[in-house]
Amino acid sequence: MTKPVTLSDEAYEALKRVKGRDMSFSQVILKLIEDSNSGHDFNKFAGILKSRTHELEKFKLQIEEDRARNVEKM
Q: Which of 2, 19, 40, 70 has its CA 20 to 30 A from that of 63?
């Protein structure tokens, strides 16, 4: 089944540039939606270091050292 959709000229041109010759507009839209849903979900990292307190402390210390070095360079 198909549905008519209204796009601004700007949106149409942007989709057209992404589309190329090998994809339909529907394929492009579905791919863009899939990409936006799969690659940027930072919630999956929440609490990941909670059980690794030693590693977390080392990570924090490294950040502090790097920041101090950067301040010295200024």
A: 40
- Which residue in this structure is represented by tokens 């402390």? 57
List the structure tokens of 61.
Answer: 């210390």
Task: Determine the Cα–Cα distance for residues 18 and 11; give it in Å rounded to an integer.
Answer: 11
pTM for the whole structure: 0.47
Provide the domain limits for residue 34: 9-38
Please check whether residue 18 lies inside any domain of the structure: yes
CA pair distance 37, 45, nearest whole angstrom: 15
In a domain, 43, yes or no: no
pLDDT digits (tens, 9 = 90+) for 15-49: 998 888 889 999 999 988 887 776 666 677 777 77
CA dist., res. 52 & res. 55, Å (int):
5
d(CA 20, CA 23) in angstroms, rounded, equals 6
Same domain, 34 and 52: no
